[in-house]
Write a structure and sequence with these properties.
By secondary structure, the protein is mainly beta. The protein contains one helix and eleven strands, in the order E-E-E-E-E-E-E-E-E-H-E-E. The protein has one helix at 102-106; strands at residues 3-7, 10-13, 18-25, 32-39, 46-52, 59-61, 69-74, 79-84, 93-101, 118-119, 123-128. Strands 2, 4, 5, 6, 9, 10 and 11 form a seven-stranded mixed beta sheet that branches. Strands 1-3-8-7 form a four-stranded antiparallel beta sheet, with no helix packed on it. It is globular, with a radius of gyration of 14 Å.
């Protein structure tokens, strides 16, 4: 069984930065991809960013965070990160990390919540104006 644990959320002013972490355990991730999603009150969970666990660590982002957020991973620590800079009030949400098979990523389905098998419990990010 895979366990994902997020940390690093909090309250920050607009323009500030936060770094989220997602520690994974329970299996090896050599043939996996991982992603960050977020869910604001009253809205559906949406894709933020994804990364292939092996190879060169290919990444994908939703348009609204490109140039502000950076997804990365540390294979040795089985940990994924989301560096969030220039935060805006509209980034306020519960952020979730999730894991799926690598083929999901390379088939272009990394944006779909339905394609992810494992989820963390979420961490709250609040950006004040």
């Amino acid at each position: 069984q895979v366990q994902l644990v997020e940390s690093g959320g909090g309250l920050v002013q607009a323009g500030g930065s936060l770094r989220l972490s997602c520690a994974a355990s329970g299996r090896t991730f050599s043939n996996a991809a991982m992603g960050w999603f977020r869910q604001a009150p009253g809205k559906e969970r949406e894709f933020v960013a994804a990364i292939a666990w092996s190879g060169g660590g290919s990444t994908k982002y939703t348009d609204s965070v490109k140039g502000r957020f950076t997804i990365s991973r540390d294979n040795a620590k089985n940990t994924m990160y989301l560096q969030m800079n220039s935060l805006k009030p509209e980034d306020t949400a519960v952020y979730y990390c999730a894991a799926t098979k690598a083929i999901t990523y390379y088939m272009g389905k990394y944006y779909s919540t339905k394609e992810y098998d494992y989820w963390g419990q979420g961490t709250q990010v609040t950006v004040s104006s």
